[in-house]
């Protein structure tokens, strides 16, 4: 759990890693040409434990996020991956006031348009 304590000593606020995963998932869905991988055998091999394609790890109060994505064919990979990172970072900062230490984007597949 990620905890933060208010200066007014009202108690603690705990944000579950599941909440961080949901926020990151929504942030990725807002980037054009990108979808998160769904639960499948390849995600199991990569160590992703949930069905959203986002893995959140908390070590010593630092947040590490891994997003496993499929990009559409023709998408500029470097610019789009950077946009995914920025969307996740900004969403977490705006909604939770948490700042992730790392946001890693793993491009696992390219999706071709069906004719």
From TrEMBL:
- Superkingdom, according to UniProt? Bacteria
InterPro entries in UniProt: Asp23 (IPR005531)
Pfam families this protein is in? Asp23
Protein family per UniProt = Belongs to the asp23 family.
- Which protein, by its recorded name, is this? Asp23/Gls24 family envelope stress response protein
């Amino acid at each position: 759990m990620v905890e933060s304590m208010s200066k007014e000593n009202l108690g603690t606020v705990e944000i579950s890693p599941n909440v961080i995963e949901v926020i990151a998932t929504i942030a990725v869905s807002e980037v054009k040409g990108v979808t998160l991988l769904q639960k499948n055998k390849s995600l199991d091999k990569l160590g992703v434990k949930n069905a959203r394609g986002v893995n959140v790890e908390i070590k010593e109060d630092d947040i590490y996020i891994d997003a496993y994505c499929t990009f559409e064919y023709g998408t500029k990979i470097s610019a789009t991956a950077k946009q995914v990172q920025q969307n996740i970072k900004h969403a977490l900062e705006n909604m939770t006031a948490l700042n992730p230490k790392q946001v890693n984007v793993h491009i696992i597949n390219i999706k071709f348009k069906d004719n």
